[in-house]
Design brief:
Cofactor (chains A, B): FAD
Number of strands of chain A: 19
CATH class of the largest domain in chain A: Alpha Beta
CATH architecture of the largest domain in chain A: 2-Layer Sandwich
Distance between the termini of chain A: 29 Å
Largest interface: A-B, 89 and 89 residues
Shape of chain A: globular
Number of domains of chain A: 4
Radius of gyration of chain A: 22 Å
Structural class of chain A: alpha+beta
Helix content of chain A: 25-40%
Family (chains A, B): Belongs to the FAD-binding oxidoreductase/transferase type 4 family.
Keywords (chains A, B): FAD, Flavoprotein, Oxidoreductase, Transit peptide
Protein name (chains A, B): D-lactate dehydrogenase (cytochrome)
Oligomer: homodimer
Largest sheet of chain A: 8 strands, antiparallel
Strand content of chain A: 15-25%
Pfam families (chains A, B): FAD-oxidase_C (PF02913), FAD_binding_4 (PF01565)
CATH topology of the largest domain in chain A: Uridine Diphospho-n-acetylenolpyruvylglucosamine Reductase, domain 3
């Protein structure tokens, strides 16, 4: 059955509704490996009113609406599971207001990371929790998926820097969640409920973010270790000792090898930790404090890099997601791993992943936001080889199970989407998932907003 | 009609259910001025299971349950509005676990601030967002009311330091919200929805908090200004310049006068700002940076105090809430003001309060967490004088209206309770309040949990 788009073309302008095959295909993919369906139509609203009009009409008709933006999700979060309408928010890409005197910026959801950084930078400010994918992703996507980034270890997550949201609910009503005051205890905190709800409860149409002043001193460096156990232990010890790091990223040997192959970089053949420090005073003392801790873990070398060299290192780190997927055309990433565990369990989990990789004879490059206990592990498999695929799935799941067992989460910053639905019950238990479901049913009784996401097939 | 408590005495132990008049009266009061009703029974659960048993039974019978702990709320948040059962959680006061290697502590809801500080301190850690009332309030109350404190300007609110909650819902089901991982994007963020919901959505039975390492350097001081305009402008400028303060509190002349009368302190007859700085390195440079900014606002004196002297100053600051209410037996606080505004509006709001005080001929002592834009203003009135009461109410409301008008909130950290229900619609709008209501109805369909709070009488 084809969707009759008359109700859409009647209320939106020329070029804001399409059923063209290219657009449908584009909106059926993301960066991950989860499979979804093509939408039946794509709409491109430019105002809050247009978002509300589309949702109200779709709600009356019971037609699914899946919000979409840059398509950089990793779990099929923005790929329709049940056809319907893909709501592409990339044309809502205006900076609405900047109030440097309050460290605040108001954005439409389609604004991308570089615009945030550029606009903030004009006032000596920056947006600390920008994800590694910030160059190619939108603020709406970051909010919908509760994103975080390399600087979360010092500054917190995207959610911690969102003050107020304008959100259109399934029935087209427009709400304001949060406050432009830096704190409020007035009524229910709908803002943080909506953040990370992956477009299943509403569509963000405006976000007020808090910004920070740029630190006076920034220095970075790279530490090499003889093996991964020592590198992971060094990270854990640094965090437990309270070293004030702004970034602390672990990169294992397989990841380094793939990075070299991808970019022609010359990362050494050792596990390594990239670090960055931000301070207004005393940065060298903090770096020396950090060095003294790293040295107790068989540190091979701790290079403090100048700004240009550091830029190259961080670019190599950012490119890892590309490097891993480009490494071998015959071995594709199974799912992008995103477990996060309490820091004392971090070393154990890294070791477990590598041991399982050996046991199952599969490549498992690991990198990620070590200071948060967040590990991006990737299982590379020949997807035409059923048996290898099975082993890969087994490995992947064993790691998630282990992370949940030690009090961690299946996904630190990528969301559940379609790919991780099967872990939701294990992580939260049936009574907690039932509470989530009752909220979904209350705010979206017809189930039109991004159906087939987050919740398991059988709750 | 008297409540038949058989269903309670059957499932709880000896001494865990009372209908004694002393207990009923105790649970009908808090620290504020809002009026409520006496409960018909008070229960004292000691385990999660007992909380669940009571809620399940009350839910089946449609009997209101209002969670209660230290009774330090200011808006009648924990005082029954419709009788029923007062659930006193003060006997659930165990520290369940401390994991210093993860900076984590697990607490029952009745644990009070000093126990948190003492337990954390044994491991060189502390709980940064502890409210000024932390000495006399419970972690359950802090969580239920989205509390914050003097150090929120640097470290954030209580909510920012809560990792995971065990919560009993109205039907007795037990959920776990959040994660022991420092970040998660797995499913809906029920944790932050429950924080600040004032016991209307569930009862917290266990909280896992994050702790922080103690800073190596702590110094404090006091700055005096010729008038309140200059003091407020100095605070605003310091925040806008990005001074790294751990506390920055404004105290007006009326508050200082009342403090002197209450404690026999000798605070000077000028508006003043109390400050504290935390750092691992370079604290003196930061203090000098701060001084350079304060000096541009006609600074009279900036005294850096030693630890003992600083302790006295902070005690005076903490005692302000007592001092204001004890100042004059014939003039009682009308409601404790708690507006919070974007920092650029802070000076205007302080000035507006004092101008209105003059216009209405009423004392309006102001103090509070200036760096957050949070003003605790108190309107003192002779409550026997109808006309004065009317003027006081008028003044109080005009200030809230103005705060909302400039993008702020009616309540930064005290919650809505009964006292601020009339402002909810103005602050959030009817569609946002309807969304809050639909969540309340979904999680507590019989409306047994703390009815008569947060939502306005007519939505």
């Amino acid at each position: 059955m084809t969707l009759d788009t008359t109700f859409l073309t009647e209320s939106l302008g020329d070029g804001q509704v399409t059923t063209g095959q290219d657009a449908l295909e584009e909106h059926a993919t993301d960066w991950g490996t989860a499979t979804g369906t093509e939408p039946e139509a794509v709409v491109y609203p430019t105002t809050t009113e247009e978002v509300a009009t589309v949702l109200e009409a779709a709600n009356e008709r019971g037609i699914p609406v899946t919000p979409y933006a840059a398509g950089t999700g990793l779990e099929g979060n923005a790929v329709p599971a049940e056809g319907g309408i893909s709501m592409d928010l990339t044309r809502m890409n205006e900076v609405l207001d900047v109030r440097p005197e309050d460290f605040q910026i108001d954005l439409q959801p389609g604004v991308m990371g570089p615009t945030i950084e550029e606009t903030a930078g004009e006032h000596g400010l920056f947006f600390p929790p920008l994800p590694s994918s910030g160059d190619i992703s939108t603020i709406g996507g970051m909010i919908a998926n509760a994103a975080s980034g390399m600087q979360t270890v010092k500054y917190g997550e995207v959610a911690d820097w969102v003050l107020e949201l304008e959100v259109v609910l399934a029935d087209g009503s427009v709400i304001t969640a949060g406050s432009k005051a830096v704190k409020t205890s007035s009524g229910y905190n709908l803002r943080d409920l909506l953040i990370g709800s992956e477009g299943t409860l509403g569509v963000v149409t405006r976000a007020t973010l808090e910004l920070a002043g740029r630190p006076e001193q920034i220095k970075g460096g790279r530490a090499l270790f003889p093996d991964l156990d020592h590198a992971a232990a060094a990270v854990t010890d640094a965090i437990q000792s309270g070293v004030d790091v702004a970034k602390i990223e672990l990169i294992d040997e397989e990841s380094a090898m793939m990075s070299n192959a991808y970019t022609g970089a010359d990362l050494p053949d050792s596990p390594m930790v990239f670090l960055e420090f931000h301070a207004n005073h005393g940065i060298d003392e903090e770096i020396e404090f950090c060095r003294s801790i790293l040295e107790t873990h068989d540190l091979i070398e701790f290079e403090i890099a100048d700004e240009e060299r550091m830029g190259d290192l961080w670019q190599a780190r950012k490119d890892l997601a590309f490097a891993v997927r480009s490494y071998d055309p015959d071995r594709q990433p199974l799912h992008p791993g995103d477990i996060t565990v309490p820091i004392s369990k971090y070393g154990d989990l890294v070791k477990e992943i590598k041991d399982l990789g050996e046991q199952y004879d599969l490549l498992t490059p690991c990198f990620g936001h070590a200071g948060d206990g967040n590990i991006h592990y990737t299982v590379l498999v020949d997807t035409d080889d059923e048996e290898q695929l099975r082993r890969g799935e087994q490995l992947y799941s064993e790691v998630v199970d282990r992370a949940i067992e030690v009090g961690g989460t299946a996904t630190g910053e990528h969301g559940i989407g379609q790919g991780k639905r099967k872990y939701l019950l294990d992580e939260h238990g049936s009574e907690t998932v039932a509470a989530m479901r009752s909220i979904k049913d209350a705010l979206d009784p017809n189930g039109i907003l991004n159906p087939g996401k987050i919740f398991p097939e059988t709750e």
